[in-house]
Design a protein that fits this description.
- The structure is a single chain.
- By secondary structure, the protein is an alpha/beta fold.
- Helix content is about 45%, strand content about 10%.
- Helix 8 (about 305-315) packs parallel to helix 10 (about 365-375).
- Bound molecules: nicotinamide-adenine-dinucleotide.
- Nicotinamide-adenine-dinucleotide binds near residues 131, 133, 151, 153 and 290.
- Pathway: Nucleotide-sugar biosynthesis; UDP-alpha-D-xylose biosynthesis; UDP-alpha-D-xylose from UDP-alpha-D-glucuronate: step 1/1.
- Its cofactor is NAD(+).
- It is an enzyme of class 4 (lyase).
Length: about 425
């Protein structure tokens, strides 16, 4: 109080100073020496200094702790990924999305607002209502991402994704990829294209349009929004191969004017477009060359050999073998493929990568496995072979093993029974449907 009183007294003294005593001009700099002790006084009084120091300590503590807080977020993401990578199918640790950038990947684009770098991804899957697409969508949703499926239902079915309809992280858009579409996403899995010979030969011009214009549209979208783009190409780009097994470096042996060209050449153009958008426009791209894949949700009568044999054996019809049945194929279970696609999308390498099971079977050997699995009394019926049917097909997957740390785990004998239950149910429902008409 005494001090306060003194201060106000001295202030009054200043006010009482006669005007004539004031110098005519007082430069601003002269004020400082007088105001410095006053501001120091101000800080020292009423424990203000103490409050300032406490503030500094709180601020410093926050900045020191911040890195460890964010690293604990990162650990959370990795643990989700690890949980995902154990699925009872022997895929433990195969897709360590955390390690491969699941948590850190922001696509190299400056669009992700500061502070939400670790948010879940928005992903488009074209052809997501089809066989492979629907399994991929299941995996992405289970991983915690938001997924938009684009499909025109040419060969896809709503039944393949109906179990996701109530899920707020799932959206379905009926759309033909031949027409442009505008969406904001981080990744595009481009699968839309009929994949079985019966379907793609049904309307070859539409098939090549889907491959060329559909891929152009999706690459254009990827460029515009800075999304990463993955093309599902095919082993058909190798045509009737003169190299066996096929490596990614092999350029293929394809008939450009045959009945399968709409698909084979269509996918080759799609690969070219993908690489040109990458080289010319800096789009982040990935290319998978998929070999024969089978599993639940395949179309029942799509002419692909595994689904044909399985459906025929269940219906007690002879299994149709085209040609002498000595042509070979390799058969990959769908969950193996899905793991491969995700590892490719999340990894650092563009590809192309062969994704297939290197186990090689003749058509007659496959028929034997189907017989063992479904009906030992099943028979085989031979028919003339179709045009341009490749004689041999077997992937060399050493590149995917080395760079994606991926290889298939499910053998044909393990995988086949898993699709048989699904086929049996659908065939039964089909028969019941017919019976009730
Ligand atoms: N399954 C295999 O063995 C295999 C082998 C090699 C390559 N692939 C490739 O994998 C992808 C998926 O194959 P799948 O076996 O799931 O085939 P699928 O026929 O079951 O699925 C294709 C999906 O694409 C949709 N689609 C087709 N044209 C479209 C268009 N213009 N616009 C929008 N959607 C369209 C279909 O309705 C369907 O849902 C295809 O690109 C195929 O070429 C598959």
């Amino acid at each position: 109080m005494k001090q306060l009183h003194k201060q106000s007294a001295s202030a009054r003294k200043d006010e009482e100073m006669p005007a004539s005593d004031t110098p005519p001009y007082s430069p601003k700099s002269l004020k400082n020496p007088r105001s410095l002790p006053r501001s120091l006084n101000y800080i020292l009084k009423e424990q203000r200094l103490l409050f300032v120091l406490i503030g500094i300590v709180i601020g410093a503590t926050f900045f020191i702790l911040q890195p460890s807080l964010s690293s604990s977020d990162g650990r959370g993401v990795i643990s989700i990924a690890n949980r995902e990578s154990i699925d009872g199918l022997g895929h433990r640790g195969q897709t360590d999305f955390g390690r491969h950038g699941y948590g850190k990947y922001t696509n190299g684009v400056g669009r992700v607002p500061v502070g939400i770098g670790n948010r879940r991804k928005r992903i488009v899957v074209t052809g997501g209502a089809g066989f492979v697409g629907s399994h991929l969508v299941d995996k992405l949703i289970a991983r915690g991402d938001d997924v938009i499926v684009i499909d025109n239902f040419f060969t896809g079915r709503k039944e393949n994704v109906v179990h996701l309809f109530g899920n707020p992280r799932f959206e379905l858009i009926r759309h033909d990829v031949v027409e442009p579409i505008l969406l904001e996403v981080d990744q595009i899995y481009h699968l839309a294209c009929p994949a079985s010979p019966v379907h793609y030969k049904h309307n070859p011009v539409k098939t090549i349009k889907t491959n060329v214009m559909g891929t152009l549209n999706m690459l254009g979208l990827a460029k515009r929004i800075g999304a990463r783009f993955l093309l599902t190409s095919t082993s058909e780009v190798y045509g009737d191969p003169l190299e066996h097994p096929q490596k990614e470096t092999y350029w293929g042996h394809v008939n450009p004017i045959g009945v399968r060209s709409c698909y084979d050449e269509g996918k080759r153009v799609a690969e070219t477009l993908t690489m040109d958008y990458h080289r010319g426009d800096g789009v982040e791209v990935r290319i998978a060359r998929i070999f024969n894949t089978y599993g639940p949700r395949m179309c029942l009568d799509d002419g692909r050999v595994v689904s044909n044999f399985v459906a025929q054996a269940i219906r007690k019809q002879p299994m149709t073998v085209y040609g002498d049945g000595k042509q070979t194929r390799s058969f990959q279970y769908v969950s193996d493929l899905v793991y491969g696609l995700i590892a490719l999308m999340e990894g650092e390498h563009i590809g192309p990568f062969n994704l297939g099971n290197p186990g090689e079977f003749t058509m007659l050997e496959l028929a034997e496995v189907v017989k063992e699995t479904i009906d030992p009394s099943a028979t085989v019926e031979f028919k003339p072979n179709t045009a341009d049917d490749p004689h041999k097909r077997k992937p060399d997957i050493s590149k995917a093993k080395e760079l994606l740390n991926w290889e298939p785990k499910i053998s044909l004998k393990e995988g086949l029974p898993r699709m048989v239950d699904d086929f049996r149910n659908r065939i039964l429902n089909e028969d019941e449907g017919r019976g009730s008409r």
